[in-house]
Amino acid sequence: MDTAALTATAAAPLVLAIGQFDGVHRGHQAVFRATVEEARRHNGVAGCLTFWPHVAQLLNPARAPLLLATPEQNRAWMTACGITQIHTLPFTRELAATGPGDFLVMLKQQFPQLVGLVVGENFTCGKNRAGNIATLPALAAAQQLAIRFVPHVELAGAPISSTRIRAAVAVGDLPLAKAMLGRSFSLTGIVIHGRAVGRKLGFPTANIHPHLPIRPQPGIYAARLLLPEGPRPGAAFVPDAHDPAQAHFGSVVEIHLPDYTGNLYGQTVEIAFTRRLRGHQVFADADAAAAQIARDTTAALIADAEENT
């Protein structure tokens, strides 16, 4: 995904969306739609310029947010929006100290075919965030660049943002996260061997070690495992990493897929969360645990049918 040196690769006019774009939510998607529109108007190419690491991870790591998605997930969603060039600019302290005018000069030097920029209305860049909706139009015009600011996309009277989505995920409000993302919140990870407790109870699970640390609120969820042959619904378990009684679960997320017999060990998979069903429970014995897992599985399949059909 990374373009270490921002080298122009096409002669066609280029329009760039610029931003962090973590999670590619509906607000980001509006920016990408506008980018595609502008590129068509110029008979050119719709591109995206993003930054790695996340700006906050460099400038304020103690308060940096948990990322919603991996670079690979973001790339796939950007491409689905019609973005055909994706460039990643390493975010450094030197870049953070660059004035917004100099930043645009650098972009024009690296992308001689650049004709336009598209950003969200709250976009800022440059030292002390001096590049904003008030200052950037004149700075862009000086480089013979058009700039388009895309209004917020709102939900329930407030702008959709990655911060709002993280908050919804943290409290287990997956329907709200889906409404802001335009798709279910999901995690990618590798299927690893577990303790086979579920298998002994008659409910084998895929133990997924996610690539990112973000998790929905601990508990039981209706979820889907997105496999090459299609999505498979089931009941997922997210342990509480802060509960000593659940420490043995580690950082895995488990999902039971009824009637699934495939071998997923070692595969990278994606689990999409539909709805939180309940919190963690302690059971008197294995029979009680198995009975509850059966009820959870039935509830998960019902919730999946309600949400995804």
Question: How would you describe the overall organization of this protein?
Answer:
With 309 residues, this protein is an alpha/beta fold. Helices cover 31% and strands 26% of the residues. The protein has two domains: 14-159, HUPs (Rossmann fold); 185-308, Elongation Factor Tu (Ef-tu), domain 3. The chain contains ten helices and 13 strands. Strands 8-9-12-11-10-13 form a six-stranded antiparallel barrel. The protein has a five-stranded parallel beta sheet with strand order 3-2-1-4-5, with helices on both faces. A hairpin with a 2-residue loop joins strand 10 and strand 11 (230-238). The longest helix is centred in the C-terminal third of the chain and has 23 residues, at 286-308. It is elongated. Residues 1-9 have low confidence and may be disordered.
Strand-pairing-aware structural class: alpha/beta
Nearest-integer average pLDDT: 93
**Oligomeric category:** single chain
Q: Compute the number of helices.
A: 10
Per the principal axes of the C-alpha atoms, what is the gross shape? Answer: elongated
**Number of structural domains:** 2
What Rg, in angstroms, do the CA atoms define? 22 Å
How are the strands of the largest sheet arranged? 8-9-12-11-10-13
**Major β-sheet profile:** 6 strands, antiparallel, barrel
Roughly what fraction of the amino acids lie in strands? 25-35%
List SSEs in N-to-C order.
EHEHHEHHEHEEEHHEHEEEEEH
What are the SSEs and their pairings?
Blueprint: E1 14-18, H1 26-41, E2 45-52, H2 55-59, H3 71-80, E3 85-90, H4 93-96, H5 100-110, E4 114-120, H6 136-142, E5 146-150, E6 154-155, E7 158-159, H7 162-170, H8 174-181, E8 186-192, H9 197-200, E9 206-210, E10 219-227, E11 230-238, E12 253-256, E13 268-278, H10 286-308
Parallel strand pairs: 1-2, 1-4, 2-3, 4-5
Antiparallel strand pairs: 6-7, 8-9, 8-13, 9-12, 10-11, 10-13, 11-12
Helix pairs in contact: 7-8
